[in-house]
Amino acid sequence: xxxxxxxxxxxHLIDGSAYIFRAYHALPPLTRKSDGLPVGxxxxxxxxxxxxxxxxxxxxxxxxxxxxxxxxxxxxFRNAIYPDYKANRPELPEDLRPQFPLTRExxxxxxxxxxxxxxxxxxxxIATLAKQAVEAGGSCTIISSxxxxxxxxxxxxxxxxxMKSRVIGPEEVIEKFGVPPEKVIDVQAxxxxxVDNIPGAPGIGLKTAALLINEYGDLDTLLARASEIxxxxxxxxxxxxxxxxxxxxxxxTLKDDTPLDVTLDDLEIRLPEPDKLMEFLAKxxxxxxxxxxxxxxxxxxPALPExxxxxxxxxxxxxxxxxxxxxxxxxYECIRSRDxxxxxxxxxRDLGHVAIxxxxxxxxxxxxxxxxxxxxVDTGKAAYIPVGHTTGxxxxxxxxxxxxxxxxxxxxxxxxxxxxxxxxxLKIGQNMKYDWKIFARLGLRIAPIDDTMLMSYAxxxxxxxxxxxxxxxxxxxxxxxPIKSLLGSGKSQITFDKVAIDDAVKYAAEDADVTLRLxxxxxxQLHRAKxxxxxxxxxxxxxxxLADMEMTGIKVDRDVLRGMSNVFAQKLVQLEEEIQDIxxxxxxxxxxxxxxxxxxxxxxxxxxxxxxxxxxxxxxDILEDIATLEDSHPQGARLAARILDWRQIAKLKSTYTxxxxxxxxxxxxxxxxxxxxxxxxxxxxASTDPNLQNIPVRTEEGRRIRxxxxxxxxxxxxxxxxxxxxxxxxxHIADIPELRRAFEEGIDIHALTASxxxxxxxxxxxxxxxxxxxxxxxxxxxxxxxxxxxxxxxIPRAEAQGFIDRYFERFPGIKGYMSDTVKLAQExxxxxxxxxxxxxxxxxxxxxxxxGFAKRAAINAPIQGTAADVIRRAMIRMPAAIRDxxxxxxxxxxxxxxxxxxxxxxxxxxxxxxxxxxxxxxxAVSLKVHxxxxxxxxxxxxxxx
Length: 945
Hints:
The protein is α/β, with parallel strands linked by helices. It has 39 helices and 24 strands.
């Protein structure tokens, strides 16, 4: 069907992802009165949308077609080009994170096309649509001020900054970059971008880059003639970093052929549906905008419910919250005497609970020094005990000089120890694992505890972040003092011990006050949300278990890592020589451009595609495809395979064998990872600083890294690993008799699947058929598409889709489970694990590119979440089970638990730990399929696994 978009049509593209940030930083904070939800960025976004629609529908001159474009996720094709792309981006502000899904909801409420594409950025979609608009004879205006989009300006394409109400054309681009739009890419490639972690050329900024491009005409000419440049530093920067500059050019160049599932005709402006739009605006409580829109549409504005009504509807809470006193920083107390401390301890004993928080010199609990302790027992009443504030000076030996009028740390700890360890007094914290470890290093073991972060996580996983600032803003309508106002940022940032005590009192005591108020608000809601069991059995008791594991750490042999780094370095040299021998010429193995020219120009391998820079794409997916062409292009296949090997070794060296050496704690000789309990929506733990859950095990070189994780003399490592736990859970949840029977009888599950699908007897099974069945088995858990399976198996998409269709014919229960799960998610807004964990799915009813991802996530969540709950329950029961053994639990890596044990007790540990994990006497979960655990022993993790 031919397109109707053409001459006279004008497309407006709103850069939704960038504009959310602009609105957030440019507009004053705004929260929804009913529940404290931050909505300032959403309000600004809605006003822009309405203004666009109003102009277009009033006179038809502003735009005939309109779309809002969003980033799909952080990972894009650019990460394959340069893994560190955008690696330094800071975490989203906690009050901005929940507003992203609301802007998508707003776009749909205004009846405007909402676009995003997996693997690409919003800018790539904008580039593609702008190009299509001009080629069709129309024009395009990009609603954004993002400098990265200025390369797109040309006849028929301009930009409009809605914050400053100004048009951005060629003159404005020259003012910004010193070059016209068609040379912006070259300037950005030279200057780089620290925000997006684009390397560029060291020491060359925008002004110098513009001077060079204007002098030499373009980037390729400049690099070819770089040796002619007279300034030594500038010349060296260009010559030595030429490849980085070319990579930078690939990163900044917008892809104007991004795959889209819409046409320009689909973006024609449509009037909003009044009921749907009014419902959204009322829900957001945008009274002024609701009135404006209602008047424009000629309808009556809906009456917004009172705050108490909205609160009841959201929380299903029949009684109103008691009115809370305002936050008063002047009322907080600084405890500087023993008498004052004793008064607070007496009050804590009377009430039987206390909210507690620590201030330290570092976020690394294993290296942090305690600076102060804050307490709160009554709403609005809190205190701070400074114990480690310094004057900034010190003695000849480097000891810090303490500020005056502070109680001695030992005295404070001795006074608080009976309180903190008293089983009759509840200690309340926000992210209590951190404070637990700080006190544990000082000889105190806090118990019992409550954790407001984990309460929120148990109730609201998938809806928002669970940091204190966000929870305070959302549920208390209060924005706490930002830590940056005390510590600063960048090179001038200080540690908390250098903060003036009077300033520290306001900040720290407020944290305890906020924590107590959150506890009063969230704790009663657990049973109404029907997640009390989740919190009490899966979240709260895990805190001391993980804290002990993290403090124990795992011993790492630095010499082994150093040796591996050297071996990898030598291997890289050998591979480079082999690669150049295969290619028949010397070239830079790390240069995608040079590699592409060899593969597609000289060797004539078909299918090469050049990007906007003129360089061929040589990402991992492309090389993997070429590596299969052994029959038709043997030289290219071998070359691609070796390049993949080289890239893998290079990553192993930089990411693991080099970086892990820096992560070894100098005091313990061990690596102490930190587990995030509330990091993943499904309940899976996340490991950071360093991430020990992501060490590759699929290749021999990757598995060798585990050889550096060792047991001390006289001890061994023991690994216990659930076997195919997610497939077993799928067999239970979807109630698949064939899979259940296979697991119970010990039949090869992948061979069984292959036999069922391809009608091949088990005794005639080939490795290739089994491999395909294995890919489908695991792919189904994640809702794999025909396209995804085709990539995994390197087969045509139609053939892959045929496999999936046949799979569902053989196992109809799985298809039924998927349909039922999506339906439940759409009806309830969440899915559940077998243990009652709720995983919210706010995007499940979305339309467009994001819909498929939301459905796949909903399908997988009960399976992955149940598996996570199983191993959580096992971990919580494990310390008591192995109490009489000389053994410690060190690591949890998804389905695996790793222990360190005395050598002569390893054989005793395995049956005890296996019993806990499999649940033979104390079942972790009642499944129709037996949970199987495989065990191994070794001096190193590699031997044990």
